[in-house]
Amino acid sequence: MCSRLVLADDNGDFRLLLSLALRNTTGLEVAGEAADGAEAIDRAVELHPDAVILDLDMPGTSGWEAIPEIRRRAPESKIVVYSAMVVYASDEQSLIDLGADAVLTKDRTVPELREALISVVGPCPGGD
Question: How far apart are the first and last CA of the chain?
């Protein structure tokens, strides 16, 4: 595996399903999970993942609040927002301005998420 990920979403079933889907994708490894923004920050600092897949609407510390903290405390980790809460183009631009590297809505497919991850972390050497 060449890209390590942290999944941050308050829905445990969604994290499990996404983890299983990504496990079958060459080069991607789910190294950790988080149920809220504070845990996402902690996992990013602790695990130094290549990318954090981050929901926005979580209890406690939201994804919106977590983005600048992850950027500050784990600057090597890319942030891919994957959320149903992105409604307007202005939301996407605001998230990019906060430090997100890519923004996708949850109606996007796992292959589209995989492509976004590859676009921000790069392809695996010798991979696709």
Answer: 13
Cβ(23)–Cβ(7) under 8 Å?
A: no
DSSP three-state, residue 61: coil
Fold of the 3-119 domain: Rossmann fold (3.40.50)
Total H helices, total E strands in the chain: 5, 5
Distance CA 21, CA 19 (A): 5
* Domains in the chain: boundaries: 3-119
Edge-first strand order for the sheet with 102-105 is: 28-34, 3-8, 51-54, 78-83, 102-105
Give, in degrees to the nearest 5, the angle at Cα 6 between 101 and 49. 70
Q: Which of 30-44, 68-82, 114-128 has the lowest mean pLDDT?
A: 114-128
pTM: 0.93
